[in-house]
Structures are given as C-alpha cells and as structure tokens.
Amino acid sequence: MRIFISGPYGDHNSTEVVARNVERAIETAKILMLQGHQVYCPHALTGEWPHDPRITREMYLGMHCSFLEYWAEAICRI
After folding, report:
1. Residue 5 in contact with residue 20, Cβ under 8 Å?
2. Pick from 48, 27, 50, 30: which is nearest to 38 by CA?
3. How many CB atoms are located within 10 Å of the residue 55 CB?
4. Which residues, listed in sequence order, are joined to residue 75 by a DSSP beta bridge?
5. Closest CA relative to residue 73, chosen from 39, 36, 44, 34
6. Which of 42, 49, 71, 77 is buried most deeply by CB count within 10 Å?
7. CA–CA separation, 69 vs 1, rounded Å?
8. Please, are residues 41 and 5 in contact by the beta-carbon 8 Å criterion?
9. Taking the CA atoms of the chain, what radius of gyration do you get in angstroms?
C-alpha cells in the first residue's frame, strides 16, 4: 500500500521540537516500509525547506498535497 505519513512538523516550534517531530515521522515511515509498504514522508523530504527563503510554505505544501491526491492510497497520522 502507498502510505502518506502525516503528523506535526511545527513551523513555529523550537528546533528541538521540530527535530523530534521529524525523527518520529521518519521512524514511522521506516516501520511501515519494513512491513512492505511504500511511504511518502514529507518530514524527511522537506524537513529543512521552511528555513530556505527561496521556497515558500505554499510551494512545499502544494507538492505534498499533490502526493495525497494522486499517489497515496492511505494516510498514517502520527
């Protein structure tokens, strides 16, 4: 199954909170992948992008939404 990992990132949280959220999402993605699923983990792909002024929030959220709409068969909310 193709699973989109969804969970808190924390755009306005401390660096430590964001790091914990990203780590949790990546670990969840690994568990699902080891169970035979394909995963899309936006935390792993764009974790640092909010700190790049060239890339807007709308840009990376739009990319994630397209994966939800056209690729994902399920969502894993953490």
Report:
1. no
2. 30
3. 14
4. 4
5. 39
6. 42
7. 15
8. yes
9. 12
Other C-beta atoms lying within 10 Å of the C-beta of residue 33: 13
| 27 closest CA partner among 39, 14, 10, 11 | 39
2-6 and 38-40 beta bridge pairing = parallel
Q: With bands split at pLDDT 50, 70 and 90, how would you rate the model's confidence at 4?
A: very high
| Closest to 64 (Cα-Cα) out of 75, 54, 51, 52 | 75
Q: pLDDT tens digits for 41-75? A: 998 887 777 788 998 989 988 999 999 999 999 99
Output DSSP code: residue 75: E
Q: Select from 34, 43, 45 the least CA-distant residue to 11.
A: 43
